[in-house]
Structure formats: C-alpha cells, structure tokens
Amino acid sequence: MRGCTTYNRPKNVHTGTRNKMKALIKRFLKEETGVTAIEYGLIAGLVAVAIIAGVSSLGGNLNTMFTSIGSCVSSLGSASATVASACKLGS
C-alpha cells in the first residue's frame, strides 16, 4: 500500500497501565499511614465524647458552686457581714 505506513504496535497496549495500577494497589495495601490517621481520629473522638459527658454531668454542680460563690462575694460587700456568716464556712 502506497502512502500507508504500518506500525509494529503491541497486541495489548494497556499492559503498562495495568502493571502500574497493580503496583499502585499493592503499595496502597501495604501503607499504614491512613490506618494510623483513622485510629488517631477515633481516639480524638472518644476523648471528645468523654469530655462532653464529664462537663455535662458536672455542669449542674459547677453552676451551684459558682452561684454560691457569687452570693457570698456580693454579701461581703455589706459592712455588717463577716466572711464566716456570709459564706457559710465549714458547711
């Protein structure tokens, strides 16, 4: 045939791509950095849940304590109050 050139093409053009993909998948399965990141994320989530649970259970007690301290400090402003009588020390 005149004007037509024939090329010696390999029968399977995608062999190189397939081998690269296999190597990529093998490397991905061997790597553990993603697994470590997920583990740290789960640990951080558990710590956050524990903090939220602790704060919510202590929230009422802290509110009561700060209200008591606030009333003690405000009653100390009057000249006739003493620390022991205003703040109910010892109880």
Automatic annotation (TrEMBL):
InterPro entries with a match to the protein in the record: Flp_Fap
Sequence intervals crossing the membrane: 37-59
The entry's keywords: Membrane, Transmembrane, Transmembrane helix
Domain of life the protein comes from: Bacteria
Alphabetized Pfam families for the sequence: Flp_Fap
Protein name: Flp/Fap pilin component
Source species: Burkholderia vietnamiensis (strain G4 / LMG 22486)
Lineage: Bacteria, Pseudomonadati, Pseudomonadota, Betaproteobacteria, Burkholderiales
